[in-house]
Structures are given as C-alpha cells and as structure tokens.
C-alpha cells in the first residue's frame, strides 16, 4: 500500500480468502481503496494483481491465492468494488509473474515453463472474457519458450497474444521501466521505444529523474484516446465520503482485518 497517512489500511490480497465472507470483504476492500484515492483526486490505481501463487518475491501476498479459482473469485469481487465507485481496473502482470522466484524490481526473471497458457494466463483470459478489465500491465519477465524479450517489450505477447488471440481492447501500460527487470532492453529511452513498439500505449517511468528526462527528450509524445476512459467516473470530497454509510462499514471491516 503506497498511500498510508490519512488513508485506511487495506489488507494484503491473500487475506480475503481466509474469511467465510471473503468475497464481500474483497469487494469492500476494492471499494474503499478506490473511493479514498478518488477523494484525493487520484484517477487510477494499477490494481489488481492477478498473478498466481506466493513464491515470487515481487508478488508475495499481493496475490489473491495459489490457484486460479481462488484468484478469480476474489479479484472479481475486488474489481467490482473498484468499478462501483467509478475507478477503472488494471490487471497485472500479464501473462503471469508468479511462476518465478526472482524479483523483477532487482533483475530480469526467466520463466522456463511451457504451460503458461494453461496456467497463469488462463486467469487473465477469464477476466478479459468477463469484460471486467479496463487496462493491462505486462510483466518484466522473459518466457524463453515463447519469446526472447520480456513480455513488457514483446510484440509476441502484447500484439499477437493479448490483442489478437485474447481480443483485449483496453489500454496497455508498461510496468515501471526503471526497474532492473527492464534493463535488458537497454537505456531508458531504448526501453521506452521497445515497449511502445511492442504494443504498450503508455509508459511508466516511476523513479530516476534522469531516466524520465531521457525518455521525454528522445521519444515522441502523443495522445492516447483510450486514456480518457480510465479517468474517474465521479468526484467527491474526503469529508463527504467519510459521512457515507458505505465508507463507515468498509473502513470498520478493513480495520478488523488489519488489526
């Protein structure tokens, strides 16, 4: 959780499945997270994580579970909560980051499996088919049985699989291109150029100011029509939000889960 001071504490994603009313709690968690961000005039949170399992150091308890059915149940409820208050959803990290131990913040992971379509990616496909995902974020993971480039910079994964095979029509965000997992694609400007060529609509450069300047100086800046669809659908103040029955109920429920 990036925002803490002045915000309700939200439990880790794997917490919801531990409770008999976990789906309702997940819906409330998604609603509360989105509502408080919107009240602070923030349009979008890159959520939820749809990755499978807890072995990966980069994912951990951000995963809703270790099997597809659990992840689908609780991520769906969480996204329903987000969308009910007017926030778009972003599934990550396509086609699945959970099958590697390495942390893509620190290095480029290699996933040697040949059954990614039947395993991790099946979760993304199901949510695309359900029409609940507005945007997607690919992983800085290389799947050598399919392509030599990280999914975040791979035309195979983004254009052939995500767009053509799965029919995804939403926005594609790169993951943070200042992460070490993206370094295999070259300099910051080269990473950005490769991600755009691969099919990313928007680039994230979350750290390292010099890298951000390099990208802005070397890559074309263009408008993305799809981006308007991701803006928040309503506005309200934090004081008005905290007067609502739904905020009080969700806030109390999350307090019980995080205490």
TrEMBL record:
The keyword Hydrolase applies. It catalyses: Hydrolysis of terminal non-reducing N-acetyl-D-hexosamine residues in N-acetyl-beta-D-hexosaminides. The keyword Transmembrane helix does not apply. Residues 1-222 form the Glycoside hydrolase family 3 N-terminal domain. GO terms for biological process: carbohydrate metabolic process; peptidoglycan turnover. Gene3D superfamilies: Glycoside hydrolase, family 3, N-terminal domain. InterPro entries: GH, Glyco_hydro_3_AS, Glyco_hydro_3_N, Glyco_hydro_3_N_sf, NagZ_Beta-hexosaminidase. One of its GO terms (molecular function) is beta-N-acetylhexosaminidase activity. Keywords: Glycosidase, Hydrolase. It comes from the Bacteria. Belongs to the glycosyl hydrolase 3 family. PANTHER family: BETA-HEXOSAMINIDASE, BETA-HEXOSAMINIDASE-RELATED. This is beta-N-acetylhexosaminidase. The lineage of its organism: Bacteria, Pseudomonadati, Pseudomonadota, Gammaproteobacteria, Vibrionales.
